[in-house]
Every structure is written in structure tokens, then in C-alpha cells.
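Researcher: Here's the sequence for the chain we discussed earlier.
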Amino acid sequence: MSDAFTDAFVGLDSRMKIIEIVTNNLANAQTTGFKRDFGRVLESEQLLDVGTGMDTAPGDLVFTKNPLDVAIDGEGFFAIQTSGGVRFTRNGSFSLNEDGDLVTKQGMKVLSSSGSPINVTGNNIGIQDGGIVTADGNEVATLKIVTFQGINLLQKEGSNQFIWNGPPEGVQDVDEPRVKSGSLERSNVDSMREMINLMAAYREFESVQRTLKTLDADMNARLIQELGRI
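Model: Thanks. This is the structure I predict for it:
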């Protein structure tokens, strides 16, 4: 295969990756606490690839009145316990399981500032501003809210969860977190902007596709000429 064909196929693949990123953003436009991804085609004499990143800008807050809903108004992530270890999320849609554990929608236990799962018994259970968990008017625990040194080492893991791939000391507690009770954080995806990005990505994809078809037609024409000389 010629260098021109190779370049065209790589270009096609890179544009498809951009399309996949944008369509995933659009699919999560209504996902609580979702952070959009972005990609850019990187071109050099030796390489054609897609550089990706995550937009950690906060989403808008929406008031739900649910006493166990909380949103971080600013920096930070909730810490949760999973079967694979501690993970992090911006989705503060919590509930209590049958054992009284505060859990995420996926059933993962929410951690307190001491690093232990939060278990609550009693009535009138809620989470107050600042992340303070109360039962019958008494303080039970405080949500663990953390930030990271080098956000690029924070990787999406699915189910709106993140894994930290850096050193343990890179995870730091937020001393005075801005946590709003009875609220949730919307996705930070701007659907209109993503639609514009998607159309641009499709146009680039189609442009590379046309180039590939032209190369294929030229090669076939040359092949027919060569066969005609035999």
C-alpha cells in the first residue's frame, strides 16, 4: 500500500475517533456530573494521531429538593468505595441501601472525610450544605471531597466514575468544600456546541473519504493501463 493510501486511512481513522468522542458527549448531555471529552487531530511529519482530554469545567446546578442529593459547587470530587478500590465521581445522586449505607446509583458506598463508608440509622436523614450528613438533627459524618495534583492523571472508568493514576499524595482533601444540599450538577456538555463539532468532524471525515476514493480510482486506472500493455 502506498504512503498516500496509508496516510488517507490513518486520517480517516483519526476523524472517526473525533466523531466517537463527540457522539459520546451528546449521549451524556443529561448525565448528572458528566464531564465532556474533547479531541484534536495531531499532525506531524512522522505522526497523525488524536490527542484527547477532559473538560473539568463545572456544570450548572439544579435544585431537586431530595435530601440526599448534593452537588459540588466548585472544585472537587466525591470519594466512593468500589470493588476495585477507591474511585471518584461528581454525581451526587445518593441514596440509602437496606443496610443504611449511603450509596451511589450503582450501589457504591460513599466515603466520609475519615475514609470510611457512611452508615446512617434513624429518621429525617439528609445531607446539609458543606457535605454534612445528619440523622434526626445530629451530625453523623462529612462527605469526603478531594482534589488532585495533575488532573490529567485522572481517568474515566465508566459509570460516571474516575480512577486516579497518580501517586497517593496527589489526592488531597478539600478542607472547606462548597457542597450544596438538595441539588445536582448537570453535565457540562453544551449540546448545541457539540452538534456543531459533530458536523465539522463529519465534513472532515467526508473530505478524507473523497481523497481516498480519488486515490483508489487513480490506482485502478493505472492498473488497467499496465494490464493493457501486457
